[in-house]
Queue: 2 jobs
Job 1
Amino acid sequence: MTKVLNLSIAALLLAGGVYLYADDDEREEHEHKRSAVVAKPMTPQEKSSVALYTKECGACHMAYQPQFLPKRSWDKTMKTLDNHFGTDASLDPQDHKTIQDYLVSHASKNDQMVDMRGAVALRISETPYFVREHREVTKKMVTQPEVKSFANCNACHTQATNGSYREREIRIPNYGRWED
Amino acid sequence: MKYLAIVSMFSMSLMAASPEVVQYMNELSKTAKTENSSFNGFDAARGKEIFTSTHTGKQGKPMACTSCHTTNLANSGKNSLTGKVIDPLSPRANPQRLTSTKEVTKWLKRNFMDVYAREGTAQEKGDVLAYIMKN
């Protein structure tokens, strides 16, 4: 079973996918396994775009899966890289275009801007989905030095860099597993 | 004669930077000369001052290169905003450093902006590179 699951993770990752779900119930596992089977492998061009994205954006923070934000958010982020949360994160034009194309083509199709009263989210942690999923997480868990902020997904989601956010993979530093 | 001195300084530094980065430094050197007629080669001591002194950064807060890179370039640093580990800057500790002009120019631009809230001059950039090479 574990082996099958690992294989499905590999297949999904190949497609640049992400496991986005809150609860580890059996039904969802099955749904995700099915989607993994139909996921298309990445083309060499997609692979090199992902590698560039991971290198450039991952130099300072986790290279968040593009599926976490809608196109509008990525457009705004990429337009304001010279002042990216107070830091100059500008890129050369060619790399900028490659990364922008990758983010936009893998952006969330589920634009939740209606919930945000028209605001365009720049931080994933501002999106309604994120807020809902983390509503029971205490401030102390997040601000402790081992986590620092919600920006460090991988501080608690041990497989975040691989695109997997299963509940059973959560280990909150100094707290441990997440129990509902 | 002065030119010879600059060239010999770079050839001594060859171990610490790739040929393309040395070439980039030669270009910086030419620009520095046109911008400052008394320019007489890059200086690691000036580079150290640029690297270790605190300034009002892009965010309007005190910031230094050492805020993230620490004062020992052979050690790993830490992004002061995100906590992400930064590999050592010293080419001896980290042979990947100073091998790509694209990387060097990208980070010099970004980090001068973050720490000094402006781009570095050719002389300043070269001085910082000379300092990094020596460490």
Note: The mean pLDDT of chain B is 91.
Job 2
Amino acid sequence: MLIAVVASACTLLSSSSPDEKHISIYSSVANYSLSISQHKGTDYVGLLELLEPLGTVSARTNKDRWRIRYNGSDSEFIASKAHASIRGSDFALTAVFLLENGRGLVPLSSLSTLLPRILGGPVTFNQTAGRLFIGNVAVHFTAQVSQTTPPKLVMNFTSPVNPTISTEPGKLRMVFTHEPLVAPGSRALTFESKMIPSASFQESNGAAEVVVSGTVPLMASFSNDGRTITISPPQTVPTQVQSQGQPIPPMPSNPPAPVAPAVPGSVAAVAPGTRHYFVVVDASHGGDERGAALTDQMAEKDVTLAFARRLRQELDARDLPTLLLRDADVTLTLDQRASAANSSGAAIYISVHATSQGTGVCLYTALTPPAEQGQPPFLDWDSAQTSFLTTSRAAAIGVAAELRSKQIPVRILVAPLRPLNNLITAAIAVEVAPPANDVTQLNAEPYQSLIANAVALGVADIRGQLQAAGK
Amino acid sequence: MIPRHLIIGIVVMVVVALGMSFYVLRMRGNAGRAETTAASAQPVAPPVSGPTEQVALYVAYDEDGSLRAQSTRIPLPAGRQERGEELLRALLNIYLSNSSPHVLGPGSEVRDVYLVDPGLAVIDLNGAFAQGHRSGVLVEELTVASLVETLSANIPGITRVRILVEGKERDSLAGHVDLTNFYDTAAMGQAVRQLQAGQ
């Protein structure tokens, strides 16, 4: 189905600072981004954070030595030294290894030689662009202008894509943060069309960008399950469009700039009403907002991110395409989370929380405030979830059944927990508590995997019901 | 040889200096104890005289994540607004006691309760209440449900409750439970029933 989009409606603010440097990692297991830190003019990245989504990894510090175990193989680094031992062999880093509060940082310029040794496979690293490809994961595309009236630029991709789209006079900009999109044969494309004369491909700060130039206003539409984007002039003069049934976010007291800069963040925005993902998983908190201090060393934001990544793996493995709303340590407002989830058209939204109190898992559905009368065709932002509570409740019951079958204590509650009440799809929150009051287990792989597996099974069990409700 | 009167003078001065030091140390100790006492004091409820009334306080229990109705007799003033404040202060006295089933941060207080017709109650908490509150969905919901249900169960006619902190709107109590909206007491009743079931 072809769903038309006014591109300006697709722009979503990301609260990452545009000046903050990022590296995006693309692999067959997960696509994610990490912040880059600078020390004495050299770029560094946390090695544990980089490897964590790729396999089983643990690290421990012994004085100035930092040992990391990845899929059973050990590597050892020494603070302030440029030599290391990788799988028993000596290795020379391009700059000294840094140890900061138990966190091991390796120079970015070493990744292209260091990672193949640790991972045991090839990697391609574009350091200037901050993009790292592990294995053969690249997404390619072709672009061709049809000689129709009006002309259409048809872009075909080898895998589904989901760029953030924005417009400015004479340009339509698509930013691919989550897709391993690589350049076509030439980075500058020219077409025999007066309306769409050219396009260009650029890479920077962990993202790829395709900018289409036009002498008329352009809009984009998705088809072929996200593998095709068609760019053409609108049939009528475009105006600010809000899809029917979309709730209106409240106006902030200080309105943002009309066009958000497309910076690499962790929010993917798609056309309203378009479904490329079945599930949206939202790791709560992040960035400046740490959430609960689970222990002196363990912040809720880190536990939720690790759990959310495991949950995405479990869902993807069950053929449930999953968008991870926050895939790095970035700050997202609740309105941004709700807008991104609503725009994704996903059948279910799952918010992840963690607590040191109690045991087992609490599942929450929204406690919606009294509904204000929305001005048709719009819904009241604060009570948008009201029409979806039955499906949300069914989802919570399905997930709870799977958790109980694995002997995990579970409760289902309603709670005034944003952004659940702002969502126009089935929406639940999962608050994970430690087993038997052992709070250190909250971040342990076996415990997280056990719960993630049960949650994914629960969602898979009611896939049909969720699909039916989303139609 | 040192003259005898000089020796006596020096001894007297040393004794006086020692005595003054002892006095100063003692005074500092008393001042420290007084500060400690002031810091640990529970919110001071205005003295309420008159007959006591049977009320139901909805008390949160962390041990099983439940909310339990607890009947007690407390003196209540005649005015509805003052009754609301007394009810919540009685509730906070339980939470701030040594055997608290649901610990709140030190210095937590309900500053005021305003009853605005028709049916709206506004609870104004102090900053210490929110800043010292533990963070988590369940632990925050227990607190909010406890306050809202205690108020609405004992003062007829309350249909909506709004919670402010230091007279201002706040996004959440401690990072999770939403404080930007009104609580519908009927809807909150559903949450209370679930919480009363415990684990």
Note: The interface with chain A takes residues 62, 65, 134-139, 141, 144, 160, 171-172, 174-178, 180-184, 187-188, 190-191, 194-195, 199 of chain B (CB under 8 Å).
